[in-house]
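Input set for joint prediction.
Command: fold jointly, output tokens.
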Amino acid sequence: MSKIIASAAIRGAYKLVDRAENEIKSAVEKFGKDRKVEFPNTAYYLPIIYGMTGIAVKKLGDMDEVLNIAKGLLPPHPSESVWLPYLGGTLDAGMATLFVEEMIEALKYLEEPIPYLIAPSPDENNLWIGAADDKILRERGIEFVDGTAPGFAACVGSLPDAETAVKIAQELQEKSLYVFMCAQHNGKGMAEQLKEKNIQMGWETRLVPFGQDVTSAVFALGFAARAAMSFGGVKPGDYRRILMYNRHRVFAFVLALGEVTDEWYATAAGAINYGFPVIADTDIPTIYPRGICLYEHVVPNVSHEEMVAKALQVRGLKVVHVNIDIPVAYAPAFEGERIKKEDVFVEMCSSRTKKPSFEFVTMKPIEEVEDSRVEIIGHDLDEIKEGDLLSLGIVVEIAGARFQKDFEPILERQIHKFVNEAQGIWHAGQRDINWVRISKAAFAKGFRLRHFGNILHAKIHEGYSGIVDKVQVKIYTDEEKARELLNIARASYVERDERTAGMTDEGVDVFYSCALCQSFAPTHVCIVTPERQGLCGAYSWLDCKASYEIDPYGPNKPVKKGEAIDEKKGAWKGINEAIVALSQGKIERMNAYTMMEDPMTSCGCFECISCLLPLCNGIMTVDRDSSMMTPCGMKFSTLAGSVGGGVQSPGFIGHSKLYISSKKFVSGDGGLLRLTWMPKNLKEQLREKLEKLSKELGVEGFVDMIADETIASTQEEVYEHMQRVGHPALNMESIV
Amino acid sequence: MFEEITVCPASQAMLQKAKDENIRTCFDRISDQKSCPFGDSGGCCRVCSTGPCRISPKKADEETGLCGASADVIAAKNFVRMIAGGASAHSDHGRGVAEVLLLAAKGEIPGYTIKDTKKLLMLAEVFEIPTENRKAEDIAIELAEKCLNEFSKDEPLTFLKRAPLNRQNLWKEKGIAPRGIDKEVVESMSMTLMGNSLDYKEIMRAGTRAALADGWGGSMIGTELQDVLFGTPKPIRSKVNLGVLKKDEVNIIVHGHEPLLSEIIVMVAKQQDMLDYAKKHGARGINIAGICCTANEVLMRHGVPLAGNFIQQELAIITGAVEAMVVDVQCVFQSLPQIAHCYHTKVITTNKRAKIPGAVHIEFDEHDAVQSATEIIRMAIENYPKRDQIKVDIPDEAIDLVAGFSHETINHMLGGSFRATYRPLNDAIIDGRIRGVVGIVGCNNPRVRHDDIHITLAKELIAKDVLVVSTGCAAMAFGKAGLLLPEAAKYAGPGLAEICETVGIPPVLHCGSCVDNSRLLIAVSEIAHIGGLGDDIGGLPACGCAPEWMSEKAIAIGQYFVASGAPVLFGVGFPITGGGMKDLLFKEYWDEYTALWAVEPDPIKQAEILVKWIDNAREKLGIKERPPRVLYDMAMRRELKF
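tokens >
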């Protein structure tokens, strides 16, 4: 009966509000009202509170206001008779609970030592990793947006035994869901059960151990709130859109595993506000009528065998699962799985084994390809011993009426992801520098090299049916044959590189638009040119071209440049017309080569953000892996908050990493030579390319003229450095 | 012996007392006042002195008025004049509230403040009034001025845009989008003059505009601005029936329709000096109770108990325990002072529009409402020692209830503060847990068994999973029958019961007074807006019913619901004659408005008709069966709008 749930949730909310009040009081006594409080490395403060109320809790003293809001949300306890409506009040109690739980968790970060490991995955000593920082949010949150991860399961409590815990975790992983674990039942949490079974946990395997306390559920719901603000472009305080974004985009649910306490009920009521239903393994009351969630709100008494299937059904989630005929599990969650040396059955890698290893996609006439054929040239794993050294040439031959040579590298790049998502297989690199490990466990389950063929055949058809008609895979383990094919492949690699290196914006008549992110940033349009990738770094001009061929009604469309309006700034009539149409009239014009006037908009997926440093007469850039304060006075996270959401912000642009090394990088503003500051790591990653480009631009040793965080952290310091090294931007015309 | 007259036990007891004390009530007068068969069927034409002409209901297609007016024209004129009467009552009410808001915002009338700024801002948005960096008072002044302008403007009424777009377009297309409220009432009166429009369809079109000007104009202004001034109703507990009168307290009954004064009376009655004054006169306290819609207003906002509905007004005095019955406007019997004369009760009229010979008149002056209220309360207190204990007989019945279901409450109760929404209601309808929604509204009529039609109908409907929303005296009948209790879910069908339990609500929701029928317009519009059930009010599984109606206001309300797309069923009888008028209202309106009128006095048959309407709508919407569960992949999720 719903009234029982309502009563329990409201009781739980009162208890947690009391607890928070006491803990805040003690913390204030101990540290004072001005003590800074935060989750590490996030621009979203305490994200649920920030998202729902717009209040940025920065210090202990800020918590009072939120505590009062939470108290104001608490409804009266439902009476025995003549009760007043309680559903709305229960949802409010749930939200109040999340507010105070978030503050309780923030107080934990004041403890010494901090009870959480500040890392993306647990280590030997600490299982619990608490709040995700913004770097994780950007890497992982995007998966919720593009559908790679349809949602998450917030697993509260524990299973009757570790085997069941492993089984449920793996089932969830196979459905591509993230598994967020918190709270304990019978003195144990689900994450502790996975640890018993040596299951690799952390963000990279999608098994995330948040904390022991039920209050740590706020890390899951805070992540959801941040996803809406960061990728959905929803403004803090716009609670309704944040919650509806989650109801419609993030298909998450709560698995209540074990006795449901008042506090669990209260937290679950908070989750229901997001449209996340509760599936329980105990005999609690039901709430079947739908509305706040897509379908049922509380479904109890679900057996562990059918729990995951039931949860998907209740949430209304369809996970399209290509059935790949292999003996191991296959899901994106296994992409992040590591295989330790001692667990390796066999590894293939030219540099380590001194035997040829490579992968190669090549186009063939249709009569030469027999679809789904997998051929092993040489030995498969049955015929070798553990630890033997093996050659590996993966050659994928593709035929398709609409297939083009240009698409070969695009598909080839996918081999890494496709192969890596199989459990017990680890893959790195590409072309002839690839590195593959197959675990003993995978071998024991029956995994053989021919299964690479099955995977590639299935996944290439799944993702590229528009351009691919037939796929056959040849796997060369015979060293001599492999070497022969390697030479053919290498010739092809060289030819491709020459072709793409020569591609320029001037050399083509059409650019491609990318509106993939419009589902969350409705006015944003990327214009992808040969010399400027999509700002996410994932789409080159060729990728867009292929994507258009695959699905002409998809997110990428060819856009004729048309008459040039301003070659230097990068303005064309055709591009502007397309921008108007694709942004639903919100954006009128765009300049491709300047960030100072009508720059391209950003969705939120940018790898880097460049912004103006007026004092330096130049610009700086920062990538999303860097969490340090930058000379513009903002961290990447804060910059991201003001640049995204499909608006033009002169003086700011989002872009890919590679774009920095493009001749067209803000070429209208003076190009690369305007760059005065960038994070050291990024600088080292791009050093070679930047040296080459700056040489072409006539400056030797330019890369070391660019300041980084070890040299300068304010504009003034950057300016001093520029003067010391004679940075060319000092002598350029004024940028503003 | 009074069971055939009323199902209300308290009323039965008071009728016995009246009989014993030889006091005549409306229940007695009915035997010497048979209704006029010509008037009853709308065929009596009194618009000029060549008549009155009478059209016999049986010969409607043959007879005409002296001027040649057909039965259809005569019926249409009478019908439209009833609409004009009803619309003017609600609109006068609405104007009064707007005037008080204007004065209150200017700080010119003590006692009144802006209680609900959230509602104020919502309304400011509707009227496109800038709000940024402005004081609430300034916004309220502009809002009140704009609302006052609604009475005389030439453009369509502002609130029309709260209706679904399709309905707005239909109004435009049919030429019935109302302009200034006064204009529409005046025009409909002028068109029905001797020798003016003689096309019954044109006359009805004018009446429809006046009716819409009531629902989406006068009434809505009344409801919404009252919320700004006195607060938007929230769920609240109270009690109903004559048993709420207190043996040892000063009983003051507020009766009528406008809360402008009664709000202040409720406030002043809580003051310590008043309580002391009551004690000084031997009373333990001051008990305010209500009758009719004034009661509903102060119930919804303060939980003031309900003494009873329309035809209990005389019976309340007969308890012998009422020190003062304070009346404002509408539905007040002239017999009250006569009956009060048999007891110590003082009947106090307060509005210049509704004076009664024999009553004390204390003019409600909004400039000094506190003074008016104080004077009234003091008079009641001073009257307490005159109560004749021998004549006192307060019935036991005082039934618990839950009220306060405003549009805002429904939003909050279904989704809380952060997800406030009608979505769960729409989903419950789509899934068939709730079959449909029926608004049972309106009056009591001594010509039918008091409260019986209301209660029998509501019980039939909720048992069939139909959610009942209610206003006015109908809602009080439900309260007395215990149907406004959440525990009454046990009378509901399994689907509705499940929703009641999920949300914690009764199966019958008390939504306020009869001007608050405008809340029901907003509710049905919101159901259409929220999606999944078509994109108009017309075609929703939602309809209205006034089973015990009597006032002209009911005709106005019925007509604005029909023209807004909700079919309406009336009990008792219906004042129209003529084949053309019957075809128009009972058939052709369906093509015009996707809604029509129907008449049926028997509550069981009423339920059958209403359920049939609902089921037909469900079938057309393709939700006869519960829709299959859709599972969403990424592409489908992207299509979900939010």
